[in-house]
Amino acid sequence: MPVLPSVLIAPVRILPLHRGRAAGAKAASVTGGNGIVIRGLGPGDSLAALTDLLHRAYAELGAMGFNFTAVDQSEAVTARRIRGRECWVAFVDGRLVGTVTLSPRRPISLPPWRDGLSTAMINQLAVDPVMRGQGIGGRLLDVAEGRSRDLGFTSVSLDTAESAEHLVRLYLRRGYAAVAFHRWRGKTYRSVVLEKLFLPVPGGRGCLRPAIVRGEETA
Question: Which residues pair with 36 in a beta bridge?
């Protein structure tokens, strides 16, 4: 994994992501102050704390009947889901308040929805429920989308429960378009796959179509 340059998006500080353990990457320690510090997950960061954050962030969705993996995944599953990927974490005053994972590869079981597909996948986007409404989720998406461009992808994609209308609307407002349906094995819901294009590609966005295959959800 390449070393990333520091980027400043006021009032958020984004620190370099370095090659580290499989779970993520090491970054210099900082004090968040009143801003949001976003950096790569480092060897000294707690997988237990990251897993607990995911549980808290996805608890509301779980209560709605959506059995996202992040609702109750173990630390071992958290480690597996970020291995070989870029895991970014957000802190406010030194407290973990958000995370997002960017994968440079599309899950094998997720069928392509257009010709010339070159997309990075976003998953495990989470914000501490008590910190929502402060733009943390949007900043994490900014980082993931920016990294996708920097890595040379023509788009970035994600999926969420089709019936989680508030999440679908959020992504549509950010310029994503629904391109496919997908049913992950063992899930109580059908997912909608959304893609945000950075450059025009042959064949366009494609159109919604059902796809029932086996695999692991990316949300």
Answer: 12
* Beta-bridge partner residues of 155: 119, 197
What is the CATH classification number for the domain harbouring 119? 3.40.630.30
pLDDT-based confidence at residue 202 (cuts at 50, 70, 90): low
How far apart are the C-alpha atoms of 52 and 130, rounded to whole Å?
14
Q: Pick from 80, 17, 27: which is nearest to 51 by CA?
A: 80
Element (H, E) at 78: helix 75-82
What's the domain range around 96?
Answer: 7-153
Query: What is the tens place of the pLDDT at every residue in 126-150?
Result: 999 999 999 999 999 999 999 999 9
pTM score of the predicted model: 0.78
Under 8 Å between Cβ of 57 and 129 = yes
Residue with tokens 């042959």: 202
pLDDT of residue 13 exceeding 90: no
Cis peptide before 11 (omega within 30 of 0): yes
Residue 195 within any structural domain of the chain: no
Q: What is the total count of domains within the chain?
A: 1
